[in-house]
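User: Design a sequence. Structure:
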């Protein structure tokens, strides 16, 4: 079967690499793709938000199955457009993708169905938000309601910080229309864990756990980013935590969406905080996490396409989802200055070192082809992933592999997976 992947980052490269391993897959297209994806798929110059063009392309090339990697097209209703034209597509419809598209919707859903999460209030008026914050307990969390590339969250330690945050989100529109509404949330402490899951509308199967590192600099300092690295599995995600989440969070969320007339088909990403009072939901995403996909998918034993088709067909209960008994660590190589300002267009060398190495992967996030050479084309440039027998070995191998890559203004965190040493 021929497939189309919509997106062009490290997550989509990881999806393409998994698809390429499937015996079911013939030709792979990716729109718009990137220089790394172009080595295993045919990149198509159509933007992820050009739904009609993408659907027309899928019909013209007789694409059998389309995978939507990104959040924006899902929230915008690309699955509805494809389904209306009789095309098989993996991902939630617009009315289900709202689980990520609106933090206020997600919080209200959790409150209604008693799914554990932080206490919160929602505001669409900046003055009302500031009045509430005058009596709030700090630190406190401000979240832009809509999609903000994983960056629309501010942790404020004082009223003055929070007041400035409200201005930034709701008045200055730092995150655009995502800040028309804002969630003010209780600050939770504990270990963060990411858990991805496949869902077919009624059945949920969780993948191996992972942990992301959002801050730009070592020691979890600096600005929030789309993710500077990750590891899988999390040593803090115990059997007891899993049992609690299976009962009170995972199936409860799927059932809640179905009860609301919004059956969810695709991937639900659960961002969890392991608090003293038990696991609570920090956030939902309606697709694979990035860079979480870069450590979870390489460890999956199943044929990814078979699992995705079972979701679309409502037969996920027939799948025995399995993962390798090992570990993976991903270190993101970024352009220095990310996520604020950075230069791009620098040639990347050393990529050939990954060609003959088992258990090493180099997923392209922000790369392009220029005059036959691969150059930097974004803030997050590459995700260097390695598998090992345990997390410590995987971490050592991943950092070893980062030395194989060279480009001007290369930057990375040096402490990805350091929490492993504390487990």
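Assistant: Done.
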């Amino acid at each position: 079967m021929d497939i189309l992947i919509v997106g062009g980052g490290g997550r989509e490269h990881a999806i393409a690499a998994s698809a390429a391993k499937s015996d079911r897959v013939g030709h792979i297209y990716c729109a718009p793709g990137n220089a790394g994806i172009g080595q295993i798929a045919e990149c198509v110059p159509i933007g992820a938000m050009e739904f009609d063009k993408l659907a027309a392309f899928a019909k013209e090339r007789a694409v059998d199955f389309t995978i939507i990697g990104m959040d924006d097209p899902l929230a915008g209703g690309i699955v509805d457009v494809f389904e209306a034209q009789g095309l098989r597509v993996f991902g939630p419809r617009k009315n289900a993708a709202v689980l990520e598209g609106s933090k206020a919707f997600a919080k209200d859903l959790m409150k209604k169905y008693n799914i554990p999460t932080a206490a919160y209030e929602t505001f669409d008026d900046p003055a009302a938000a500031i009045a509430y914050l005058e009596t709030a307990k700090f630190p406190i969390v401000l979240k832009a309601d809509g999609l903000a590339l994983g960056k629309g969250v501010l942790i404020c330690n004082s009223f003055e910080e929070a007041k400035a945050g409200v201005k930034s989100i709701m008045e200055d529109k730092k995150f655009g229309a995502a800040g028309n509404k804002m969630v003010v949330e209780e600050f939770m402490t504990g270990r963060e864990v990411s858990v991805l899951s496949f869902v077919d509308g009624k059945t949920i199967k969780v993948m191996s756990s992972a942990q992301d590192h959002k801050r730009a600099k070592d020691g979890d300092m600096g600005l929030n980013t789309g993710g500077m690295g990750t590891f899988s599995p999390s040593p803090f995600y115990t059997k007891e935590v899993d049992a609690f989440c299976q009962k009170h969070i995972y199936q409860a969320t799927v059932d809640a969406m179905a009860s609301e007339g919004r059956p969810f088909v695709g991937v639900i990403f659960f961002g969890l905080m392991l608090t003293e009072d038990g696991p609570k939901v920090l956030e939902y995403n309606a697709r694979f996490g990035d860079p979480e996909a870069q450590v979870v998918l390489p460890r999956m034993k199943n044929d990814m396409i078979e699992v995705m088709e079972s979701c679309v067909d409502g037969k996920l209960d027939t799948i025995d989802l399995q993962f390798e008994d090992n570990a993976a660590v991903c270190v993101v190589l970024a352009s220095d200055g990310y996520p604020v300002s950075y230069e791009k267009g620098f040639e990347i060398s050393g990529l050939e070192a990954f060609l003959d190495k088992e258990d090493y992967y180099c997923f392209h996030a922000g790369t392009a082809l220029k005059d036959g050479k691969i150059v930097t084309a974004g803030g997050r440039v590459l995700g260097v992933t390695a598998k090992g027998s345990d997390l410590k070995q995987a971490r050592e191998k991943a950092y070893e592999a980062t030395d194989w890559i060279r480009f001007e203004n290369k930057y990375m965190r040096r402490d990805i997976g350091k929490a492993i040493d504390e487990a």
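Residues 239-259 form the longest helix (21 residues). Residues 142 and 184 are 5 Å apart (CA to CA).
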